[in-house]
Amino acid sequence: MPIISTDMEVKKLKKIFVENITKRIFTYWYGTEWDFNGTTQKPHEGNIACGYFVTTTLRDMGVPINRVKMAQCASEEMITSLASRKNVHRFSNVPLNKFEKKMNELGDGLYIIGLDNHTGFILISGTGNYFIHASGWFPYKVVRDVVGESSILSNSKYRVVGKISDDEDFLKNWVKGSE
C-alpha cells in the first residue's frame, strides 16, 4: 500500500513539512555563526557551512540522508539526489527580479537552491519569499533574507532549485525516515 495515495495527502504532508522545518528547525539556527569548514550539529554551538546547514536541518527533520557526504558534494548534485527531475529547475544569467517572478510561478513551497558557490533554501509563501542560508557574507551567520533584496542571489550567475515540498518521492522518504 502506498504511503501517499492522493493529492490531498501530498498537500497535507507538504504543509506539515514546511511548517515544521520553518518554525521548529530553522528558527533555532538563525544567528548561528558561519564558517567555510563549519560542521556543528547544534545551533549556536560552533560554526556551520552552507552545505552542512542544509543537510543538518533536513536530517533533523527526519529526512534519511548522509549528512556529511551530501554537504560536501556540489549543490546541484545534492538537489538532484533529493528532488525528482520534474521538480528541478535551472536558471542561467537570469536577473533576480525575473528569477523571483519564475519562483512565484512555480508556487508556494520549500526549495533547496544551489548557486555558483553557495546553497540554502528558498521559501515561497503568501507571507513573503525568503532565502534561508548559512551566509558566507556579512553577517556571516544563518539568516533569512528577503529573496528580492539578496545580493548573494543577485550576484550568482547560475541557480538551480529543487522543490522538495511538492516532491512525492521526497515526502515518501521523509515519512519513511521519520517513522
Give a structural overview.
By secondary structure, the chain is an alpha+beta fold. The protein has a single domain, classed as endopeptidase fold (from Nostoc punctiforme). 41% of the residues lie in helices and 20% in strands. The protein has 7 helices and 6 strands. The protein has a 6-stranded antiparallel beta sheet, sandwiched between helices. The chain is globular and about 45 Å long. The two termini are 16 Å apart. The mean pLDDT is 94.
The name CATH uses for the topology is: endopeptidase fold (from Nostoc punctiforme)
The succession of helices and strands, N to C, reads HHHHEHEEEEHEH
Number-wise, the strands total 6
Question: From the coordinates shown, what is the CATH architecture?
Answer: Alpha-Beta Complex
How would you characterize the largest beta sheet? Answer: 6 strands, antiparallel
What global shape is seen? globular
Secondary-structure-derived class: alpha+beta
Q: DSSP strand (E) fraction?
A: 15-25%
| Mean pLDDT score | 94
Radius of gyration (CA) equals 15 Å
| Unreliable sequence segments | none
Helix content: 40-55%
Distance between the termini: 16 Å
CATH class bucket: Alpha Beta
Trace the largest sheet across and list its strands. 1-6-2-3-4-5
Helix tally equals 7
What number of structural domains do the residues give? 1
